[in-house]
Amino acid sequence: MTPPESYNKLKERMKEIATLQSTGAVLYWDQEAYLPKRAFDHRGDQLAQLERLGHEWFTDPLVNDWLAAVEESDLAKDKESEAAVNVREWRRLYDREVKLPTEFVEDFTRTTTKASQVWAEARQKSDFSIFAPLLEKIVELCRRKADLIGFETEAYDVLLDEYEPGAKTAEVEQVFKALRPELVELIGKIAAAPRKPDIGILRKQYDIGKQRLFAESLGAAQGLDFQQGRVDESTHPSCNALGPFGIRILTRYYLDDLHEGITSMTHEVGHGLYDFGHQDKSHWGTPMGETASLAIHESLSRLWENIVGRSREYWSYFFPQLQRIFREELAGVGLDDFYGAMNYVTPSYIRVQADEATYNLHIMLRFELERAMIRGDLKVKDIPGEWNRRFEDYFGIEVDNDANGCLQDVHWAHGIHGYFPTYTLGNLCAAQFWSQAQLDLPDLLDDFSRGNFNRLL
Amino acid sequence: MTPPESYNKLKERMKEIATLQSTGAVLYWDQEAYLPKRAFDHRGDQLAQLERLGHEWFTDPLVNDWLAAVEESDLAKDKESEAAVNVREWRRLYDREVKLPTEFVEDFTRTTTKASQVWAEARQKSDFSIFAPLLEKIVELCRRKADLIGFETEAYDVLLDEYEPGAKTAEVEQVFKALRPELVELIGKIAAAPRKPDIGILRKQYDIGKQRLFAESLGAAQGLDFQQGRVDESTHPSCNALGPFGIRILTRYYLDDLHEGITSMTHEVGHGLYDFGHQDKSHWGTPMGETASLAIHESLSRLWENIVGRSREYWSYFFPQLQRIFREELAGVGLDDFYGAMNYVTPSYIRVQADEATYNLHIMLRFELERAMIRGDLKVKDIPGEWNRRFEDYFGIEVDNDANGCLQDVHWAHGIHGYFPTYTLGNLCAAQFWSQAQLDLPDLLDDFSRGNFNRLL
Question: Looking at the predicted structure, is the pLDDT value of residue A276 above 90?
Fold first, then answer.
């Protein structure tokens, strides 16, 4: 077989795997949006089967042969060529995955599917003890994964690497260490400022049907194409790519919180636009058609949510529309009042509802706790106590119950320890991309006040 | 390997295949309920991949060896034993499937997924020419399937056998021939009757949100368990089993037709109750846990839709509730008026909205046409003309457009030629089951007037 033939074999195989994974993404989306309670066990079997197949196809020794043939050939000489990029990334993943036995992969998927369901119940009842036994098993599985793959410094490196290729725990720690005092100072200054936005504006009774229409119109204005994607509702907002054309946004609305339905949408649409943004669909299913890392993916959602979607220019365009929809509720509210409320900074329990400034403290807390879990320094049973202690230390408020504390996020139920840091790394990337965008595209903010996002997109 | 070991291998393999197929069912359900237009091509790839895998796993020569080992053993001696029943059915399917090349199976799935999308557009525009090229390919694929599997008398036998194992085209023809004059006479008598129900009762403006709540309450009363199932909306009503616990009903509501939302629900819930009804979930994924035939499955939906859901007793319980929901619209309407309207018999274009009496004529028409298509006696381009000609002959009304004619059903786009007859066979089975149920369970109709369906269930 010639190197080009090997490379074609690889592409064919990887696209088969990507197709299978996109089927898994449908199952997962459905699980988050619609799956009835008693159907969860079987969903775990379905997902585990696809994981097993994908793992088998990917870790096939033939893949290693094909990779080697391309790596040693002229095809990979130019490090920026399509073949070199794809093969480099496949090799990295192959060397990880081949160390995980198929039974382990299946067990991991089945356990985390079950855990997602149990977590939802625990959160609803605000009772950590319901979730603890499964979380113990998941932490054990994560540690086992790290051991199987192997690491130099610490187990958490292996988990982090899955979402942020090449990143090291110690580096993240350094970045967070530098960011933290500046953040604390900023939050302190905001708290001491004499002028406070009236957050009450957002806490009236806002009809959910109207909120839905408005939020979907924001998504459409940003660039969400409803011929390729759709929006449904779920407990936990997310954006799911179900194939080269098929973005499924899950969002949520609260009757007494106008803010949540808006920012969940602007955020998730940011993810969706990044997925849509891979214009050359022939790369679909290969690293050339995928994100470089989760921080990069997250930077786009953050850019849209925070930098675009909380800007005064954005609201100078959309607030009059919103005011027409909620005529009574927003009567007498000025643009600056609304803009202020959308940017209100204050310590709060829930990460996904946190403001732009305190948000990163939520991430630092989770990073520290999950790193301690993986190291074995923190037992699962001690999580609620430790969470609450640190939370009070960082935010100055006492956690009233586990649903508002350590049970609020689904991530640990999914076994995706190592994922949280990418949110703050994403914020930092977003700031850098935005800074460059403003240099490259003069008067970019003016576009927003005309409801035009094409140049940014 | 001992025969019990072979049997266990078979069960394991078949449950793997059933799990994979249940994943395909999720993809299909999503396609019918939610798939955006531009995502259809990739959905075809996803479904084709699962079909290919399932086909490969099922037609593996090992399956043949395991089957042979059990067939020749004591395990299969008692023809009514679990092993004998399962192996007999697997053998029947194996001998069919093994004759179909994998590429054929993939091509069939990809073509019919594409066709479902194109059909929807053609129906919307009422333009048969949009759908014709794909239908031509599908008819060709169906004929090729019949040729590959082989037949004694006619190709249509092979297709029919997929849905109604063992049934022959000539037998269906005989049954229909006997039924038809009696039906025509009955419909004639009804048409000549001096008393006519006022169908206008059902054709006011009925708020869809309220219709939805009412219809779901009917489903719940009949026995639909929302911990295991859910209801969504689609162009074409259906009931999809996504696993041992996971019934997804798709239904539809029209603002100006109260009838449709009710009967679609009572019908599809009938299917769902049958699927839920397999109490011993250990049989899931084997013939012992599946329906004997589609006519049997359909007989349950028909029983609930027509015999239960159009009975005076059923409405004596539910009509007062409906009247409370639609206070103004149903003011002054009596139970007998409503009961009469729900049982109105008249020739009409759309099969799924047809009354109980004329319904079977719709099936006979389709049976004749698809049989002619498969025989090669009817060209695809001649379908609209032939449909309209026969329709006028059977129903005495002229078809006004293809959306109300030959484009109304999705079945041909799915390539499930041979399926239609099972609807009428289901009606006939339902009548027989009902007759026996009344003998076995005295005063059964009285239960309905108390909203109680437990004995029947």
Answer: no
Q: Cβ–Cβ of A229/B34 closer than 8 Å?
A: no
How far is the C-alpha of B159 from the C-alpha of B371, rounded, in Å? Answer: 10
Q: What digits encode the pLDDT tens for the residues A384-400?
A: 999 999 999 999 999 99
Contact A230, B36 (CB under 8 A): yes
Q: 């320890």: which residue's tokens? A: A417
- Of the candidates A397, A394, A396, the one whose C-alpha atom is nearest the C-alpha of residue A367 is A394
CB contact under 8 A, B27 and A26: yes
Q: Which two tokens stand for residue B261?
A: 């939302």
Cα dihedral across residues A396, A402, A407, A408: positive or negative: negative
Residue B22 and residue B90 in contact, taking contact as beta carbons nearer than 8 Å: no
What amino acid positions of B are annotated as catalytic residues? 268
Mean of the per-residue pLDDT values for chain B?
95
Candidates A242, A248, A278: best to mutate against B (most CBs of B within 10 A) is A242
Q: Return d(Cα A294, Cα A411) in angstroms, integer.
A: 14
Give the span between the Cα atoms of A325 and A268, in whole angstroms. 23
Look up residue B306 and give its two tokens.
């027509």
Number of H helices, E strands in chain B: 18, 3
Q: Per residue in B83-112, pLDDT tens?
A: 999 999 999 999 999 999 999 998 999 999
**Do A26 and B30 make contact, defined as CB atoms within 8 angstroms?**
yes
Element of type H or E holding B61: helix B61-71
B230: which chain A residues are within 8 Å (Cβ-Cβ)?
34, 36
Q: Is the pLDDT at A340 greater than 80, yes or no?
A: yes
Query: Which residues are bridge partners to A248 per DSSP?
Result: A230, A240
Shortest distance, CA B279 to any CA of chain A (angstroms): 14
Q: Nearest CA to B290 among B63, B102, B69, B22?
A: B22
Residue B148 has pLDDT above 80, yes or no: yes
For residue B232, the chain A residues in CB contact (below 8 A) are 34
Which of A36, A46, A246 is opposite residue B42, by nearest beta carbon?
A246
List the structure tokens of A260: 């949540």
Report yes or no: B270 and B299 within 8 Å, Cβ to Cβ. Answer: no
Is ipTM over 0.95? Answer: no
Q: Which of A27, A36, A243 sits opposite B26 (nearest CB)?
A: A27
Question: How many Å apart are CA B354 and CA B362, to the nearest integer?
Answer: 8
State whether A36 and B228 contact (CB < 8 Å). yes
Query: In this predicted model, what pLDDT tens digit does every residue of A106-141 receive, in sequence order?
Result: 899 999 989 998 999 999 999 999 999 999 999 999
* Cα separation, A47 vs A53, whole angstroms: 10
Chain A positions contacting chain B at CB under 8 Å are: 16, 19-20, 22-23, 26-27, 30, 34-39, 41-43, 45-46, 49-50, 53, 225-230, 232, 242-246
Whole-number Å distance between alpha carbons of B360 and B431: 13
Q: A320: buried, middle or exposed (CB in 10 Å: 19+, 13-18, 0-12)? A: exposed
Alpha-carbon distance values, A78 to A84, A85, A88, B168 (Å): 7, 9, 12, 65
Tokens 């089951």 correspond to what residue?
B433
Within 10 Å of residue A92's Cβ, how many Cβ atoms? Answer: 14
| B229 interaction partners in chain A (CB closer than 8 Å) | 36
Separation of alpha carbons A69 and A4, rounded Å: 9
**Per the confidence metrics, is the pTM higher than 0.95?**
no
* Tokens 């806490």 -> residue: A203
Q: Which amino acid is at A287?
A: P
- Across A340-344, B60-64, B227-231, least confident range: B227-231
Give the span between the Cα atoms of A160 and A296, in whole angstroms: 14
Please report how many Cα atoms fall inside a 13 Å half-sphere around the Cα of residue A144, on the Cβ side: 14
- Minimal Cβ distance to A38: which of B26, B41, B245: B245
Phi then psi for residue A233, to 5 deg, are -115, 150
Beta strands in A234-276 (DSSP E): 238-241, 247-251
